[in-house]
Amino acid sequence: MLDIFQAEDWCTVVQGTPKFQPPEIVSGISENYRGRKVDIWACGVTLY
């Protein structure tokens, strides 16, 4: 997914398993988020 998003792209639709999502998305704090940062978070969770 990293090659699809640019660093400045914003996303508004939440998809995927909550255990792979960053805390601010799971808790509902943020309605918009950076797609690339979310993908990096999910990659880190997977590698951990």
Automatic annotation (TrEMBL):
The record's annotation in InterPro entries points to: Kinase-like_dom_sf, Prot_kinase_dom
Q: Which GO terms describe its molecular function?
A: ATP binding; protein kinase activity
> Looking at the record's lineage, which domain of life comes first?
Eukaryota
Q: Which SUPFAM superfamilies match?
A: Protein kinase-like (PK-like)
Q: Where is the Protein kinase domain?
A: 1-48
Quote the protein name from its UniProt record. Answer: Protein kinase domain-containing protein
